[in-house]
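Discrete fold record:
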Amino acid sequence: MRHVIGFNSDWLFHTKWTDVLKDSLKEAEIVNLPHNVKEVDLHYFDEDSSWFVSGYQRVLNWDKSFENKRILIHFEAAMSAAEIFVNGKSFGEHKGGYTPFTHDITDALKKDSDNLISVKLDSTERKDIPPFGANIDYLCYGGIYREVQIIVASDISIEKSMLTGLSDAKVCGKIIIRNSEKKKDVKENINIKIYDGSNVIHEHKEDIVLSGQCFEEKDISFNVKENIKLWDIDNPNLYKVEVSLSNKDSISHNIGFRTAVFNGEGFFLNGNKINLCGLNRHQSYPFVGYAMPSRVQKRDADILKNDMALNLVRTSHYPQSRHFLDRCDEIGLLVIEEIPGWEHIGNKNWQDVSVNDVKDMVERDYHHPSIIMWGTRINESADNHDFYTRTNTMAKSLDNTRATGGTRCNLNSELIEDVYVMNDFNHDGKLDPMRSQRAITGLDKLVPYMITEYNGHMFPTKMNDCEERQMEHTLRHYRIIDAVAKSDEVAGATGWCAFDYHTHYNFGSGDRFCYHGVADIFRNLKFAGTAYASQIDNKTKVYLEPISIFARGERNVGGVIPLVISTNCDYVDIYHGGKLLKREYPQSNRFMGLRYPPIVFEVFDDRLIGAQDWNVWDDIKLVGFIDGKVAIERQFVKNPLFSNLEVIADDDCLNAVKNGSAWDATRITIKAVDQCGNRLPYINLAVSIDIDGPAEIIGDTVFSLEGGLYSFWVKTINSIEEASNIKIRVKTKKFEEKIVNIRISK
């Protein structure tokens, strides 16, 4: 019987590695995982502050359940090279900060004794490990930033279950078995059960005769006899797969039954054509870099699917948290996942690590129905026939159910993969939103084709930039997603990018930020995010957001029009000073590819409003209609005043750190609003935060609002014997103290 123990609490963290740490426990700061080796300032940080070799130590107490078992330690990721020692014995160095690794530490353990686990973690940007070797446009931070587990298993155990479902009810893939004692000519039974809820709807058995290798593989293929419901973006039906051996060792995971196909006509999910519309995601957060727990990782998927109405995300530029991918499965958010890298291709040894990254990525994530393509090229790198033949062959040898692709930025690139994938930054506000496929590929025929980046660095925009810039930022996103939706040559596109992120000094803005996102680094939507958010089905949510703060000084040489409105309403009545100014309809003739085009109010009618007032807004009311009925109203005043400070938590309950679990966290957002509850983007009020209870604030406890907003995360910090509460006090000079209460479950 397998037993998995969380191994995430009470690590000792040493900012400097010395070899004495291999086999001697030394006092140090106590930390819980996930962990970043150095807190990163929000602006103007020292980018190499986490580039050092650190040490982590943790005692593993011998337990009677370990008797006659194999003890494995599993790291989900550590940035960027980790050497594990158990009681001084080295288990070698794992190269790469984005993929998991496991060691069988049984023979190094001392029975009935404490056992010292030490990790030598090299977080420097080493030239022998992707994505490093040249400049990269993002920070990789350092630390054991994902979870660690101790696995207690039999000498014959399941190492990995690589099973997926297809739309014809077929389950296929393979099971990898760990044969710890390298037994030979031993027959083992593999039992696979498919669950719909708590009901077993199919059971399949296979025999394997062990060959004496440490790892044994068994190809699996069978059809589920019961009727199954397909997985798609609107109905993400999942089934649990439980794989067990005759010794009762077992693991389980979810699968969905679907078929994902790219061809010259586009992308098809279960035979239905879908226009892929998405954004790229970096997994970085303020202050802690990559080190965020399950709840926060999953929240990103919810933001992309539910708040931005996307159907696709690209995991730029590396494999991301299993929690994020699990949530994509659960909510029907499609994924393109790619290997670590950015423009640079290293030497043969570097390439060997990259090929292994492909292997680790596919083996870890094969079962996710949300993943529709493997990215097997280094982002925006030059052609390299031999190297990319290796990466593509590796992916296809492990998975023949999904397409491969590889993102390039150069024209006439060699097509080795299934899909020609391009970063098309043609649109500069004047040039066409995208180039034709043949102009990109140089081929005389259409091939499966995908755009994976646009906008981004072409027009970086901050949350508090002037309205005119933010309006243009929004329109650029509208123009491109409209052009992609209308084209028969492209399967879809993922824009650059979802969230602002930290970068090196020679990229981004002066404060080492890439303000390329349609949301800020705290996941708050900029105006450009409304181009996507407004595309949600209006039967699900009514959306209406003007791209304006209704002030004449926001435009070059003054003026207040055009007024762009992101909405999924059928039409909008615009009231000015209490009088109906105009009924305006979405620009369907201009944005024919969009389900919900924006409304663009371009000309005042002097018969309705005095000519002398054409350059000034009065009080505004926007009334949105759906099916002839009022669906939403928004009010905006001509003289907005700072009237309130809204404080909202994403969650009202968190999980305590217990039994080796990872810590938990939730986001709290502070927003300055006017009399009507609208954000005031130029309020930079100073705020301080206090907290009572078993939790702490991530990052600064004294700060100023940026763009009228600020978000922060609250994390749980230690074990509790019973349920508890935390109280967060938000203090300013202008308003009474705001209090947020969050429950901590036992």
